[in-house]
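Inverse folding, one chain.
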């Protein structure tokens, strides 16, 4: 460790640990300035290094001034007569004059260094709430128009056909088909809400519970719906009111099939998983430290090709997307026959225990509890960010230049000459 490092460390310790109550403000200022001065000399950073070209001019001017004082003849300059040579330097007055000229050189050098605007590095920690970007994806296939009620058991189409169940009602959604079988007829209130209605309700519940009115300190949420293709209903926004108004559009144009895997033979038929991934990739370029969450609400039975499912799993794991799915209907409650979307979530959970959660909801209350659980899991994380900055300390070099100039005046005066 060199001398400058030792001196910097000593001044830093003095600066941090000294009881300032025992010192006046002026002494505090001096200690702080000299700490910055030594720190800048030890760790060199200049905002305007081109100003160093003026240093030779300042040194020449100081030497020229001293030489001129020696060469001119005046009664006040008698002490200069013996300045030249070793004998002159060892003389009392000549030694004082030599020191005065050194101080004059120190003034010129520090003044030029101040013009270069030296800086010292500083590291500061910023504690921020880690922003979450949450996509809520809602199924808009035809089967979402059925009611979400206990006692409405779902069967895959081949199972219902095999039993030749006369009460089986085929729901044609244009894609993966299913039969809805009602165990017994019950009196139900009029205008029952459909699965699509309840999915929209829980999306609104999540927005109201999760987001705040502070645009700079809230999660950003986007709304998407999907059938055979995926559609953007509302892009990422921190505007809670705007999203509350847009959430009703999730319930529009319900009908058609389901396409989880995508893309299909049609270029435009992009599945919701690929759509969410592509959108997250775009946002990460702007927000590299954010957390990305995908929440899917669906009753879909659509199969995903095993190879395609593995591709999507690799994409989600590599990107770190946190995936949740709320499966609507009793068809999601059979652990012996997991649906392909359940298999997808299970593989994600193996790779990342914080992702790949499946919630099964056979009634609206279970949907709400699922959203509550997701909200609990996705609590705000605090991010500690270290920012490296440089603080200008040219004032310390200006103070040093003034100190050298005052010393020059003192030593020159003691030598019996007019500075």
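Residues assigned per position:
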């Amino acid at each position: 460790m060199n001398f400058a490092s030792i001196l910097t460390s000593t001044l830093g310790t003095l600066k941090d640990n000294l009881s300032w109550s025992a010192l006046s403000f002026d002494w505090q200022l001096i200690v702080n300035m000299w700490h910055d001065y030594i720190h800048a000399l030890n760790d060199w950073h200049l905002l305007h290094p081109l100003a160093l070209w003026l240093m030779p001019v300042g040194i020449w001017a100081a030497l020229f001034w001293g030489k001129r004082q020696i060469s001119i003849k005046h009664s006040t300059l008698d002490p200069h007569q013996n300045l030249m040579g070793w004998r002159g330097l060892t003389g009392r007055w000549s030694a004082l004059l030599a020191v005065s000229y050194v101080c004059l050189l120190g003034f010129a050098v520090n003044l030029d260094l101040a013009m270069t605007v030296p800086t010292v590095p500083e590291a500061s920690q910023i504690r921020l709430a880690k922003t979450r970007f949450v996509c809520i994806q809602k199924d808009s296939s035809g089967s979402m128009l059925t009611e979400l009620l206990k006692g409405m058991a779902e069967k895959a189409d081949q199972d219902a056909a095999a039993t030749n169940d006369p009460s089986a009602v085929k729901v044609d959604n244009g894609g993966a088909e299913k039969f809805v079988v009602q165990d017994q007829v019950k009196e139900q209130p009029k205008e029952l809400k459909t699965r699509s209605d309840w999915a929209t309700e829980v999306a609104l519940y999540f927005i109201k519970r999760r987001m705040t009115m502070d645009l700079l300190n809230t999660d950003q949420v986007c709304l998407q719906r999907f059938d055979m293709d995926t559609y953007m209903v509302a892009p990422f926004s921190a505007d809670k009111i705007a999203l509350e108004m847009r959430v009703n559009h999730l319930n529009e144009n319900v009908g058609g099939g389901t396409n989880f895997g995508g893309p299909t033979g049609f270029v435009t038929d992009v599945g919701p998983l690929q759509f969410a991934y592509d959108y997250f990739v775009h946002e990460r370029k702007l927000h590299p430290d954010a957390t990305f969450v995908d929440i899917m609400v669906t009753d879909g039975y659509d199969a995903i090709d095993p190879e395609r499912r593995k591709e999507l799993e690799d994409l989600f794991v590599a990107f770190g997307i946190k995936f949740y799915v709320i499966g609507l209907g009793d068809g999601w409650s059979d652990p012996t026959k997991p649906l392909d979307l359940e298999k997808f979530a299970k593989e994600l959970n193996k790779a990342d225990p914080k992702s790949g959660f499946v919630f099964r909801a056979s009634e609206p209350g279970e949907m709400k509890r699922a959203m509550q659980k997701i909200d609990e899991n996705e609590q705000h994380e605090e991010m500690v960010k270290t920012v490296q900055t440089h603080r200008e300390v040219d004032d310390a070099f200006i103070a040093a230049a003034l100190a050298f100039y005052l010393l020059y005046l003192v030593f020159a005066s003691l030598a019996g000459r007019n500075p």
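The radius of gyration is 39 Å. The first strand starts at residue 119 and ends at 129.
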